[in-house]
Every structure is written in structure tokens, then in C-alpha cells.
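Bench log. Compound arrived from synthesis this morning; before running ITC I wanted a structural hypothesis for how GN1 sits in the protein. Inputs:
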Amino acid sequence: MNEQQQSLLVQSASRFPPPQGIKLSYGTAGFRADASILQSTVFRIGILAALRSLKTGGAVIGLMITASHNKVSDNGVKVADPAGEMLTQDWEPFADSVANAPDPESLIQLIADFAKKEDIPLNGSKGATVLLGRDTRPSGESLVEAAKQGICSVIGAVGIDIGVVTTPQLHWIVRARNKDSKPSASELDYFDQVSTSFRCLIDLIPNKSQHGIGKLIVDCANGVGGEKLQVLKQKLNWSDVEIRNSGEQGVLNEQVGADYVQKDKVAPQGFGPPDVGVRCASLDGDADRLVYFTIIPNGNNRINLVDGDKILSLFALFIKDQLSILTDYTNEYQPRVGVVQTAYANGASTKYLNQLGLHVIFTPTGVKYLHEKAHEFDIGIYFEANGHGTILFSNRFLRWLEDKKSTEKSLEKQNAAMRLWAVSKLINQAVGDALSGLLLVEAILQHMGWSVEKWNELYHDLPSRQLKVKVADRTAVVTTNAETIVEKPPGIQEAITALTVKYPQGRCFVRPSGTEDVVRVYAEARTQEAADELATSVAKLVDQFLGFHVGM
Ligand SMILES: CC(=O)N[C@H]1[C@@H](OP(=O)(O)O)O[C@H](CO)[C@@H](O)[C@@H]1O
Ligand SMILES: [Mg+2]
């Protein structure tokens, strides 16, 4: 590192002292904490993003300020790599040490050592670009400013602020600028592409007139999804959609949004008895998660939840149908379809997907793991139960499809190829995206002529319960086997298994959260009472093994 670079970093870093006595970690989805302590972290991740751009030959890197479904006073920061995907896991330890370096001197030493090891040109000879986006949190603007300061303290680096966007939009734009050779790709291109491909899917529906599926109401978590869905609604001239909790009045994520709806299995605020019988959906605070639901008549706000597993099943079924129109066993090339889930996937969904003849794989929680796995297939479909997921298409498959679109003689096959092509354009290739996911669900339901109830009947969820336990040190829990088995502390797994076997169709696991200071407990069983009981008794176990009384 030359002297000019060094003094620039010293000067700017001293304006962003790290919070005392707090250790932050990059976690499942970047850094998240109370917004008031994040200035220094975000500044430093701005530096990291600029270094990442330098390392990747000047590719555009994304930096998103969001804490997704967390409360409004929290915020966070995460980095998108050139293909719009999550920051490579190899850099996470560096992100941790950069965020936690106690003073400017140690920070600069870390950067110098890392730049040397990674062969990053830190002499101003190369340019770097970081695209900055934020959700609607009030703390967003000043954190974007901190990130810009970080970026600008790397010579040759520029930060481009694209304002308030959904997390998936930022990832999409980063990808488009690098991969699709559209250096000026913007939010407008995103809206154009998703709306055009959605229209294409609708135009390809056979016997369209028979397929009206009625109104949709979308809960936008009082977040960024509200204004963006409004744009799509106008663009598509879509009169059958009603946007609620758009953020004009209520508080972000407060008793609204996909996380609340999925975890508590209740209707969000602003929904009630008049909505019984209507198809409803919920996005989360930064619009990268999507779930559907219907309100149970006289059910005291309870809902029938149509979660990420069911969205995955619907997508898998549609893709499989289209592929079976397009190919038969005589085809030389048989596209490999893979489905990726986590331990949180309802057991009934996995059984259903297996029955469809699909290859199901499990990874640890966190979309970075699912996404990576899905890439191993020609068509990789992944979803977390909470509604984050997408479908990835390999280049080889897309080239094959391109050829099929133009050479297929049969109109039926041509249409199937066109549909799959439109899906690949509609569904976000960088990350899970609630808006494009919502449009795909709507297009498929219309295609099938299905009500949300019919969709929900694909299989019946096993009753489940999720609990959180506050413990003294959640890092004491070490898991293996896609987080289904606890290795440490010793003895706890045996105790969990002993409880689980008592319940018919029982399944239970615990893992430390990557986004909250808790250990999560998940239990599934034949009845709701049994699932609740199992979860509660395992939560007690966790408390016995790891609670605050331990070692005190
Ligand atoms: C049970 C659950 O929903 N966990 C969520 C949650 O992670 P935890 O590590 O469980 O806190 O937030 C992640 C980021 O949004 C998401 O990927 C994940 O699925
Ligand atoms: Mg989110």
C-alpha cells in the first residue's frame, strides 16, 4: 500500500470509531445490529466492497443497507458479488476482522496484509465501482453515506448510490451490469424485464378466458416492496391486485410482513374477516421473501399458510410439466433438475417433491448455501420455508432452450420452450426475489386455473413449531449434517433424540441463529399439540445445557 493510500485510510477511519465492547459477525446475511452502532461497520464494509471490485478486475460490486425483517431500529449491510450473488464465503473472515479491528492502525494493517495476500492492486492503478442501495429504514441514508466514505477511501474507487431499492433489485442490477453486459442497467430495466416476461407467460396460457383466478391482496410489510409493487401494478395494468401495508402509514415489520406471517401463522395487521376467501401474499421488509396465505373463517386471525416449500413445489411442478412436454427419453440431452431445501422445510414437502421424482438436497440455513447447491444443476430450484428462493438456469440449458424455441416444429413444444425461457427471464438469477416470485406464482396459478386452496392441497403440512431460546453463548452450539445434528455441547443430541422418538412422525433440531442472538428450536410431529410439546421440551433442554445459569 502506498503512502497516499495509507494516509487516506487513516484519516477517514479515525472519523468512524468502532463501538466499544461489541463483536459483530458477518452471519447468515451480512452484519445486522441496532442501527446506532453500525456507522463504523458500514464504513469498513464500504472499503471491503471497493477491494472486492479491485480484486474482480473492476467488476461492479453491490452494497445493500438493510436488516430485512428485523425491527425498524435495526439495520445491516451485505455485499453482492459480480454475478449478483452473495459475497464469496472466502471473504467472510476478512469481513469479520475488518469490522472488529479495534483502531485505524490495526484496520490498515489488516487491509494491507489482505491486499498483499489476495494480490489486490492498492496503488490507484485500477478503478473500482460499488453500487449502493438501501431499504426504507430511516437510518439508511446516513449509513449509505458512511459506506460511501469507506469506498472513497480506496484510491480509484467510486460509489454509485441508486437510492431505495429492494435487496433483489440491487443484486439484479449488479448482475446485469457485469454478466449481461449492460453497464448502465437500472431499476427501469428490472421492471421492464420482469413485466415483459410475466406478460409472455400470460400470453402463452391455453384457453385463457377460462382461467380467471380473482383478486390478490399483498401485505408489503410497510417496506420497500410497497412502492415497487405499485410500479409493477401500473406497468402491468393489473387491476386485480390490492397493495396493503405499503409503508405510507404503519411501522416497518411491526406485526406485518412475511417473517411475522410465516413464524406466527397469523394474518398481518390490516387484514381481517372481510378478506376471508381472498388470495393473500406477504413480502418481507426488503422484499426478498414471499409467502401466501388465506384467512381462516372465524379463525381469530389464524391463517392457512402457503409457505416457501409450497411455492417451491408449485414451481417444481410447472417446470417438470413444461420439461416433459419438451423432452422424452430419446433426447440426447436430459436437463438435470435439482431441488434444494433446508432442515426447516416441512417434511411433507420433501415427501411430495420426492414423489414427483425430483432430486432433493439439503444444505445449512442461509441462501448462500442453497444458491451454491442449486448452481450444480441445469435447473436448480431452491427455497427456504420462510419464502426466500429462486430458480437458477445453467447456460447450457439456456442455449439448448434457445435452440428449441426456434427449431421445434410442434407448436406445443415451442410454447413449452417459450414458457421456460420466460421463467428464466422473470425469476431473479441472482437471489430470491419476492416481486418476481409473486409474478411467477400468479402466472402459474393462472396457467393451471388453480385457486390458492387448490394449490395448498398439493400436500398437507405436518404440524410444526419454532421457538427461540436466549442462551449465554450461542456459538457453543455446533451442528453437522445440514444442521440436523448437534455435535456440541456433548450429550444434548442424545437427549433431543430421546424426546423426539416419543412422537409419531416427530422431527426436531436446534441450531444457533446467524441473525439473532438466540438458539432456534424446530419441531414437527403428527399433531400440533405434539409439535408444540416437543418444541417446548427441547427448548427447556437447550436452556438446561446452555442457559445463563451455566457456569455461573
Ligand atoms: C429459521 C429462519 O427463518 N432463519 C432465517 C434467518 O436466519 P437465522 O440464521 O435462522 O437467524 O434469517 C436468514 C436471513 O434472512 C434466513 O436465510 C434464514 O432462513
Ligand atoms: Mg429479507
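What the model suggests: The chain has a mean pLDDT of 95. The chain is about 40% helix and 20% strand.
ITC booked for Thursday regardless.
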